[in-house]
Amino acid sequence: MLPLSTLPKTHLVNTMATRQDPFPNRISEVNRWRATDELTQFDSEMCLGAADNWNLPESHVAIVRGYLKNGTIRERAYKQFGHAHRYMLSLLKNKEDFTLMTYDELQDTLPEDAFD
After folding, report:
1. Amino acid 80: pLDDT
2. Which of 22, 41, 52, 101 is the most exposed place for a label (fewest CB within 10 A)?
3. Model's pTM, two decimal places?
4. Residue 20, pLDDT score
5. Is the pLDDT of residue 101 over 70?
6. Contacts by 35-39 with C-beta closer than 8 Å and gap 24+?
């Protein structure tokens, strides 16, 4: 059997079916950005504009973004609100903050000066 690198490109066929990502993102674009130590200034209008662009698929009832004590952010999408509720309770028991997005609202448990 020949290694794939020796085959002509016409013979390389993707046999696995690919499905569309329900939460498309621009991570490849973000990875090309050059990091700086300068802080980006933002105001409430910019935050509301970002919230308007945060799209919840019809198949899901909520997205919960947890801000864990170790500094990581864990975001989970839920199709059943009971599961989202359980995750939010576990975050509250561990005294961790979270942001909840449903089809009609965006709420969080963060203090008002969290990003100051």
Report:
1. 94
2. 41
3. 0.54
4. 76
5. yes
6. none
Neighbouring C-beta atoms of residue 116, cutoff 10 Å: 5
Task: Give the range of the structural domain holding residue 80, as residue numbers without chain letter.
Answer: 43-109
DSSP string over 29-55: HHHTSPP-SPPPP--HHHHHHHHHH-P
| Of 33, 54, 51, 34, the residue nearest 42 (C-alpha) | 51
DSSP symbol at 23: S
More confident residue, 115 or 28: 28
11: which DSSP letter? Answer: G
Q: Is residue 85 part of a domain?
A: yes
DSSP 28: H
Residue 104 lies in a domain: yes
Cα–Cα distance for residue pair 73/28, rounded to 1 Å: 19
pLDDT, one tens digit per residue, over 41-95 is 777 777 777 666 667 788 999 999 999 999 899 999 999 999 999 999 999 999 9
Number of domains in the chain: 1
